[in-house]
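tool_call predict_complex ligand=zinc ion
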Amino acid sequence: MSGQPPLLGVVRYMVTHMLAGNVVVVRSIYEVLGQNDSPSMIVRRYGLSKHAVKGYIQRIVERCGSRRRAEIIVSRVGPIVLGAVEPIVVDDGNVAVCKLCMVCSPDNARMVNDPSVRYSHVRRLHKAVVEMHIRRVLDELRAQVAGHGGGEVRG
Ligand SMILES: [Zn+2]
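tool_result ok
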């Protein structure tokens, strides 16, 4: 995953979490890097551990090579992912159910309350869906950039 361009890496990471139903992970990344909220605010807001929040942020910054570049990319990409991507893994009582695998997924019982299991389920089993949503997010980003900046990306 480290060889891909930063924008693609960020979009892939956020789209995969969103499809996995890890909406608070995507919101946390957007609110810290795109809106400059502090990680401790996020911890209070969503009940995630500070360690987890720092891990998500660190993964994005690593993909981008610098904190500033991560902020620019996430501030653009975050609202598109949050607005345009519907989770395919949903909570259903004490299991989480993948809407594409339905009841036959062996991961269903393990996915509830475990963002990393949900993430790896989507990444391993639904590559085509992930790629489709990546293309959709990049198309929307291109349309926004063309519409507001005359083809020029402004940070
Ligand atoms: Zn599935």
